[in-house]
Amino acid sequence: MDFQPTSSPSNWVVQKFGGTSVGKFPVQIVDDIVKHYSKPDGPNNNVAVVCSARSSYTKAEGTTSRLLKCCDLASQESEFQDIIEVIRQDHIDNADRFILNPALQAKLVDDTNKELELVKKYLNASKVLGEVSSRTVDLVMSCGEKLSCLFMTALCNDRGCKAKYVDLSHIVPSDFSASALDNSFYTFLVQALKEKLAPFVSAKERIVPVFTGFFGLVPTGLLNGVGRGYTDLCAALIAVAVNADELQVWKEVDGIFTADPRKVPEARLLDSVTPEEASELTYYGSEVIHPFTMEQVIRAKIPIRIKNVQNPLGNGTIIYPDNVAKKGESTPPHPPENLSSSFYEKRKRGATAITTKNDIFVINIHSNKKTLSHGFLAQIFTILDKYKLVVDLISTSEVHVSMALPIPDADSLKSLRQAEEKLRILGSVDITKKLSIVSLVGKHMKQYIGIAGTMFTTLAEEGINIEMISQGANEINISCVINESDSIKALQCIHAKLLSERTNTSNQFEHAIDERLEQLKRLGI
Ligand SMILES: Nc1ncnc2c1ncn2[C@@H]1O[C@H](COP(=O)(O)OP(=O)(O)O)[C@@H](O)[C@H]1O
Ligand SMILES: N[C@@H](CC(=O)OP(=O)(O)O)C(=O)O
């Protein structure tokens, strides 16, 4: 993929707002963030906004989840109207509450009703067929981002910040022939987004484009191909298209912490993490940023900054590789260096963060030796693939396989039970539920001896039983599976041993000595 970014500043920042932020803090987003970043006596940037569908409280009860529930109901030929009414009422109450200008408010209510009528049409057609295609799911899902962005555009204009709604739900033409989400598809999207941005880039007057954080009907279906959290990827592609100086992902936390601050009050805010670390944290339970986001922006040398909507002046956390030059710099840092911490600061911490993921089941399969071991693994994965079951961790010997799988809902449990029946043909199967994965993540852990040992000894000292152990092939993740009821205790005790401020301070002596020894070595003493 060749985006050919220029190294000079473009004076554009792309700001992505998640669903719960739009739901809870819309006025702060407009007044303290969008207006602030674009004002002449402030950072004076051109701002492009990208929003996800609104959630008043949690993502699980948000608009996207509700729309997906409607798709489920339609596919079972059941009634979905009540949920559409809940979505309508929620958005209309919101318009009443926040939009003061009567004309803007009336237009917003009208646009909201029109979008929901369209969704009802798609769902009614699917209900008759008793089947909802992935294309229909995408069309229905896009309504969430449309409603949210219609509202945010109206709110910006209502509060004196000129903004224009940009609907991306048809950016991929229906006859587009790509069969996969590959580089050529992303190149096509970036080009199409450049065209959408062009009028804003060339405009004499500053107008904030508000992009629906939904980029159309992608080849494999957005939900299958990208999954929930797709707005991060959409924002990344917009950042690449405008060659932004920074992609800002605004959340309800100050940035990325050494652990979920809700579960570990001593968790520390990190200045910077690498894209690999951010991906691992997201895969293993800390929903930081969608893993597909990073590749797009980092190729174009655009740093990603995670920031808090409630604390806009905080520095946040930067996601950027520690061995790649930034936009505007010709050479990468040497020795490899995080953006704001020194080499020794980074070495000192070893592990970067810890995370847990609940709703895990472990399947143990002991081969009946009727197939050779290579056939044994191949058959297991064919069965799991058939039931769309994802394996988070695996540990194997020639005749025994243990796998940790996320089973977060009734549908995946049903698939697991169906797969179990087939797996029994291969050998004895036992399944343990209510487990949790604990993952210690850190790009620099491999330079240390004894981190895994400390992690597992700490769990043993707390009387926490380990069900399974696995170290990721990329060497930035050491994981184990424990009882879900122990997960908070495990997080807190490992954090205290390997990640707390106190641990780092006590390590300072050790590293001061290390540093001195290296100096002496350099001097040949
Ligand atoms: N290591 C971590 N650093 C920061 N937040 C974390 C971490 N692990 C888990 N979290 C949780 O992830 C959530 C992400 O922020 P939130 O604004 O709720 O997301 P969204 O933008 O998807 O709405 C926070 O509630 C936070 O408690
Ligand atoms: N609205 C979509 C896309 C998204 O990215 O959401 P959020 O930015 O709130 O995580 C979802 O719920 O998955």
From TrEMBL:
Keyword rRNA-binding: no
Any GO CC annotation of this UniProt entry: cytosol
Enzyme class: transferase
Location of the ACT domain: 440-525
Catalytic activity field: L-aspartate + ATP = 4-phospho-L-aspartate + ADP
EC number: 2.7.2.4
Biological process terms in GO annotation: 'de novo' L-methionine biosynthetic process; homoserine biosynthetic process; threonine biosynthetic process
CDD domains named among the record's database cross-references: AAK_AK-Hom3, ACT_AK-Hom3_1, ACT_AK-Hom3_2
GO molecular function, one term: ATP binding
InterPro entries reported for this sequence: AceGlu_kinase-like_sf (IPR036393), ACT-like_dom_sf (IPR045865), ACT_Aspartokinase (IPR054352), ACT_dom (IPR002912), AK-Hom3 (IPR041747), Asp/Glu/Uridylate_kinase (IPR001048), Asp_kinase (IPR001341), Aspartate_kinase_CS (IPR018042)
Highest taxon of the lineage: Eukaryota
Gene3D superfamilies named in the record: Acetylglutamate kinase-like, VC0802-like
Pfam families (alphabetical): AA_kinase, ACT_9
Keywords: Amino-acid biosynthesis, ATP-binding, Kinase, Nucleotide-binding, Threonine biosynthesis, Transferase
Biochemical pathway: Amino-acid biosynthesis; L-methionine biosynthesis via de novo pathway; L-homoserine from L-aspartate: step 1/3; Amino-acid biosynthesis; L-threonine biosynthesis; L-threonine from L-aspartate: step 1/5
Function: Phosphorylates aspartate, the first step in the biosynthesis of amino acids that derive from aspartate (the aspartate family of amino acids), including methioinine and threonine, the latter of which is a precursor to isoleucine.
Family statement drawn from the similarity comment of this UniProt entry: Belongs to the aspartokinase family.
PANTHER family in alphabetical order: ASPARTATE KINASE, ASPARTOKINASE
Entry protein name: Aspartokinase
Organism: Saccharomyces pastorianus
Gene: HOM3_1
